[in-house]
Amino acid sequence: MLKVALVDDHVLMRDALAKLINSLNGYTVLFCAGNGAQLREMLGSGNEPDLVLMDVMMPGMNGFETTAWLTTHYPDVKVIALSMQHDERAVIRMLRNGAKGYLLKDTDVDELKTAMYEVANKGIYMNDILYKNIVHSIAGNQQPTEEAEKQIALDMTEREKVFLRWLCTEKSYKEIAAEMYLSPRTIDGYRDALFDKLKVSSRVGLVLFAIRNELVQV
Q1: Which of 80, 103, 133 is the last residue of a domain?
Q2: Backbone phi and psi for residue 34, each to the nearest 5 degrees, phi listed first
Q3: What is the pLDDT of residues 149-164, one digit of tens each?
Q4: What Rg do the C-alpha atoms of the chain give, in angstroms?
Q5: Structure pTM?
Protein backbone atom coordinates (compact mmCIF):
# COMPACT_ATOMS: atom_id res chain seq x y z
CA MET A 1 0.00 0.00 0.00
CA LEU A 2 1.64 3.23 -1.18
CA LYS A 3 1.11 6.25 1.06
CA VAL A 4 0.25 9.51 -0.70
CA ALA A 5 0.22 13.10 0.59
CA LEU A 6 -1.67 15.87 -1.21
CA VAL A 7 -0.45 19.46 -1.12
CA ASP A 8 -2.88 21.91 -2.74
CA ASP A 9 -4.43 25.15 -1.52
CA HIS A 10 -7.77 24.47 -3.27
CA VAL A 11 -9.83 22.52 -0.74
CA LEU A 12 -12.39 21.15 -3.20
CA MET A 13 -9.67 19.95 -5.56
CA ARG A 14 -7.71 18.41 -2.69
CA ASP A 15 -10.73 16.63 -1.19
CA ALA A 16 -11.88 15.27 -4.54
CA LEU A 17 -8.38 14.01 -5.33
CA ALA A 18 -8.09 12.38 -1.90
CA LYS A 19 -11.40 10.57 -2.40
CA LEU A 20 -10.29 9.38 -5.83
CA ILE A 21 -6.88 8.11 -4.68
CA ASN A 22 -8.39 6.31 -1.69
CA SER A 23 -10.66 4.45 -4.11
CA LEU A 24 -7.68 3.13 -6.09
CA ASN A 25 -6.18 -0.27 -5.37
CA GLY A 26 -2.81 -0.06 -3.63
CA TYR A 27 -2.95 3.62 -2.61
CA THR A 28 -4.00 5.45 0.54
CA VAL A 29 -3.97 9.17 1.31
CA LEU A 30 -1.88 9.71 4.42
CA PHE A 31 -2.73 13.40 4.86
CA CYS A 32 -3.53 16.63 2.99
CA ALA A 33 -1.90 20.05 3.33
CA GLY A 34 -2.74 23.48 1.99
CA ASN A 35 0.87 24.51 1.29
CA GLY A 36 4.47 23.53 1.96
CA ALA A 37 4.54 24.98 5.47
CA GLN A 38 1.61 22.77 6.50
CA LEU A 39 3.29 19.76 4.92
CA ARG A 40 6.42 20.38 6.98
CA GLU A 41 4.34 20.49 10.17
CA MET A 42 2.64 17.18 9.32
CA LEU A 43 5.79 15.25 8.52
CA GLY A 44 7.28 13.32 11.38
CA SER A 45 8.62 9.97 12.46
CA GLY A 46 6.59 7.24 10.79
CA ASN A 47 4.48 9.81 8.97
CA GLU A 48 6.39 10.03 5.69
CA PRO A 49 4.48 9.41 2.45
CA ASP A 50 5.90 7.49 -0.49
CA LEU A 51 4.49 9.99 -2.99
CA VAL A 52 3.50 13.65 -2.79
CA LEU A 53 1.16 15.20 -5.35
CA MET A 54 2.36 18.80 -5.25
CA ASP A 55 0.49 21.85 -6.50
CA VAL A 56 2.98 24.22 -8.11
CA MET A 57 1.39 27.58 -7.33
CA MET A 58 0.35 28.00 -3.67
CA PRO A 59 0.41 30.90 -1.21
CA GLY A 60 3.06 30.83 1.47
CA MET A 61 5.48 28.01 0.71
CA ASN A 62 4.86 27.13 -2.94
CA GLY A 63 5.51 23.92 -4.86
CA PHE A 64 8.99 24.96 -6.02
CA GLU A 65 10.24 25.69 -2.51
CA THR A 66 8.51 22.68 -0.97
CA THR A 67 9.88 20.25 -3.54
CA ALA A 68 13.42 21.54 -3.03
CA TRP A 69 13.00 21.21 0.76
CA LEU A 70 11.66 17.65 0.46
CA THR A 71 14.51 16.65 -1.87
CA THR A 72 17.01 17.82 0.76
CA HIS A 73 15.31 16.54 3.93
CA TYR A 74 13.28 13.55 2.69
CA PRO A 75 15.06 12.33 -0.47
CA ASP A 76 13.11 9.05 -0.51
CA VAL A 77 9.78 10.88 -0.86
CA LYS A 78 8.93 11.22 -4.56
CA VAL A 79 7.13 14.32 -5.83
CA ILE A 80 4.74 14.59 -8.76
CA ALA A 81 3.98 18.20 -9.68
CA LEU A 82 0.40 19.29 -10.43
CA SER A 83 -0.28 22.39 -12.48
CA MET A 84 -3.13 24.14 -14.30
CA GLN A 85 -0.96 24.85 -17.32
CA HIS A 86 2.16 23.74 -19.17
CA ASP A 87 4.80 26.37 -18.58
CA GLU A 88 8.29 25.37 -19.74
CA ARG A 89 10.14 27.28 -17.04
CA ALA A 90 7.88 25.86 -14.32
CA VAL A 91 8.50 22.32 -15.61
CA ILE A 92 12.27 22.88 -15.63
CA ARG A 93 12.27 24.44 -12.16
CA MET A 94 10.19 21.60 -10.66
CA LEU A 95 12.41 18.94 -12.26
CA ARG A 96 15.52 20.81 -11.14
CA ASN A 97 14.17 20.93 -7.58
CA GLY A 98 13.62 17.18 -7.57
CA ALA A 99 10.12 16.46 -8.94
CA LYS A 100 9.85 13.10 -10.69
CA GLY A 101 6.81 13.91 -12.79
CA TYR A 102 4.71 16.82 -14.01
CA LEU A 103 0.95 16.43 -14.52
CA LEU A 104 -1.66 18.88 -15.70
CA LYS A 105 -4.68 19.10 -13.42
CA ASP A 106 -7.06 18.17 -16.24
CA THR A 107 -5.39 14.76 -16.63
CA ASP A 108 -7.65 11.69 -16.56
CA VAL A 109 -7.69 9.00 -13.88
CA ASP A 110 -5.80 6.43 -15.97
CA GLU A 111 -2.91 8.83 -16.51
CA LEU A 112 -2.80 9.71 -12.82
CA LYS A 113 -2.59 6.01 -11.95
CA THR A 114 0.14 5.49 -14.55
CA ALA A 115 2.11 8.49 -13.27
CA MET A 116 1.98 7.33 -9.65
CA TYR A 117 2.98 3.79 -10.62
CA GLU A 118 5.85 4.95 -12.88
CA VAL A 119 7.27 7.35 -10.32
CA ALA A 120 6.98 4.84 -7.47
CA ASN A 121 8.51 1.97 -9.44
CA LYS A 122 10.67 3.49 -12.18
CA GLY A 123 11.66 6.87 -10.82
CA ILE A 124 10.22 9.37 -13.32
CA TYR A 125 7.14 10.10 -15.41
CA MET A 126 6.26 12.78 -17.96
CA ASN A 127 2.68 13.12 -19.23
CA ASP A 128 1.90 12.61 -22.92
CA ILE A 129 1.31 16.31 -23.62
CA LEU A 130 4.78 17.25 -22.38
CA TYR A 131 6.40 14.17 -23.92
CA LYS A 132 5.09 15.08 -27.36
CA ASN A 133 6.65 18.52 -26.95
CA ILE A 134 9.98 16.96 -26.00
CA VAL A 135 10.50 14.17 -28.50
CA HIS A 136 10.45 14.47 -32.29
CA SER A 137 7.73 12.31 -33.83
CA ILE A 138 9.02 12.62 -37.40
CA ALA A 139 9.46 9.19 -39.00
CA GLY A 140 13.05 8.00 -38.82
CA ASN A 141 13.99 10.60 -36.21
CA GLN A 142 14.00 8.45 -33.08
CA GLN A 143 15.47 9.17 -29.66
CA PRO A 144 18.92 7.73 -29.01
CA THR A 145 19.05 4.48 -27.03
CA GLU A 146 20.15 4.69 -23.40
CA GLU A 147 23.63 3.47 -24.38
CA ALA A 148 23.89 5.98 -27.23
CA GLU A 149 22.69 8.76 -24.93
CA LYS A 150 25.38 7.93 -22.36
CA GLN A 151 27.99 8.04 -25.11
CA ILE A 152 26.73 11.44 -26.25
CA ALA A 153 27.09 12.67 -22.65
CA LEU A 154 30.66 11.35 -22.48
CA ASP A 155 31.57 12.98 -25.81
CA MET A 156 30.17 16.41 -24.95
CA THR A 157 32.58 19.31 -24.76
CA GLU A 158 32.98 21.13 -21.46
CA ARG A 159 31.36 24.19 -23.07
CA GLU A 160 28.28 22.15 -23.99
CA LYS A 161 28.07 20.83 -20.43
CA VAL A 162 28.26 24.35 -19.03
CA PHE A 163 25.49 25.40 -21.44
CA LEU A 164 23.33 22.47 -20.27
CA ARG A 165 23.82 23.45 -16.62
CA TRP A 166 22.67 26.99 -17.39
CA LEU A 167 19.64 25.56 -19.20
CA CYS A 168 18.60 23.94 -15.92
CA THR A 169 18.17 27.37 -14.34
CA GLU A 170 15.42 29.93 -14.91
CA LYS A 171 17.61 32.17 -17.07
CA SER A 172 16.51 33.01 -20.59
CA TYR A 173 18.70 32.13 -23.59
CA LYS A 174 19.74 35.78 -23.80
CA GLU A 175 20.78 35.77 -20.12
CA ILE A 176 22.69 32.51 -20.61
CA ALA A 177 24.57 34.08 -23.52
CA ALA A 178 25.62 36.96 -21.26
CA GLU A 179 26.73 34.57 -18.48
CA MET A 180 28.85 32.57 -20.94
CA TYR A 181 30.22 35.71 -22.69
CA LEU A 182 28.84 34.48 -26.01
CA SER A 183 26.50 35.97 -28.58
CA PRO A 184 22.82 34.91 -28.59
CA ARG A 185 23.43 33.45 -32.07
CA THR A 186 26.19 31.19 -30.70
CA ILE A 187 23.90 30.06 -27.88
CA ASP A 188 21.18 29.30 -30.43
CA GLY A 189 23.78 27.22 -32.29
CA TYR A 190 24.58 25.21 -29.13
CA ARG A 191 20.88 24.63 -28.54
CA ASP A 192 20.09 23.56 -32.11
CA ALA A 193 23.10 21.23 -32.24
CA LEU A 194 21.97 19.52 -29.03
CA PHE A 195 18.38 19.29 -30.32
CA ASP A 196 19.74 17.46 -33.35
CA LYS A 197 22.07 15.16 -31.39
CA LEU A 198 19.47 14.16 -28.83
CA LYS A 199 16.40 14.18 -31.11
CA VAL A 200 14.48 16.47 -28.77
CA SER A 201 12.56 19.60 -29.62
CA SER A 202 12.38 21.64 -26.43
CA ARG A 203 14.44 23.01 -23.56
CA VAL A 204 12.66 20.59 -21.21
CA GLY A 205 14.00 17.69 -23.28
CA LEU A 206 17.55 18.97 -22.86
CA VAL A 207 17.04 19.39 -19.10
CA LEU A 208 15.78 15.80 -18.80
CA PHE A 209 18.87 14.60 -20.67
CA ALA A 210 21.10 16.55 -18.27
CA ILE A 211 19.32 15.10 -15.22
CA ARG A 212 19.31 11.52 -16.52
CA ASN A 213 23.02 11.64 -17.27
CA GLU A 214 23.95 13.43 -14.02
CA LEU A 215 25.34 16.47 -15.81
CA VAL A 216 23.51 18.63 -13.28
CA GLN A 217 22.82 17.98 -9.60
CA VAL A 218 19.18 17.70 -8.49
Answers
A1: 133
A2: -90, -15
A3: 778 888 888 998 999 9
A4: 18
A5: 0.69
